[in-house]
Input
Amino acid sequence: MLRLKLGLYIGYILLLAIHPTHAQSSVPPSNVTCEALLPPDRPMFSGPNAPTIRFSAPASGDVYGTFVTVSVDIEHFDLTTDARHWHLWVNGQLQGMVYQPSTILDLAPGRYQLCASLGDSDHADIGQPAETVITVYAAAAGTPTTAPAAPLGPVGEVIPESGVTPGKIALVVAVGLLAAVGGWWLGARLPKAQK
Output
């Protein structure tokens, strides 16, 4: 039993070590653009009615205060219909989907590349992404924060895209370990085959 507990503990520690969070990761090299995060065969649009996205907040530069309001301006793409949304990346890591024009991130002090792209009802990225690079500083006592007191529009939660998560990995590892231990235990109690 001690071995099983030790194995589960080591597996949990390894999962924590290999799963980076956006606060711990660094800004991608300057030659990695937001466009490189998107599939090259995504639908592209041109002309005066092409769907577009751009950051309205924060502007590139310094941000004081770790709660950062992220707002986008979207043209020719209605977020209120057909489960349309936008995707948000922080330092090359997809954070998820946002169904409102604004969301709030809690970022540790550091430098961040934020990327946003429009997502259709099939969760496919479309068009050109938006990009901004910010440096977040913790606000000292008496220092006003850069982030607006109120978001520029309704605030949406960042909803993670479905896929492999650390919890799912831990569950698969735990079930596998339990199956192995159960098989060993059952095999030790069954009569041995006679030759």
User: Anything to note?
Assistant: The chain has one domain: 26-164. The radius of gyration is 23 Å. The first helix runs from residue 2 to 18.
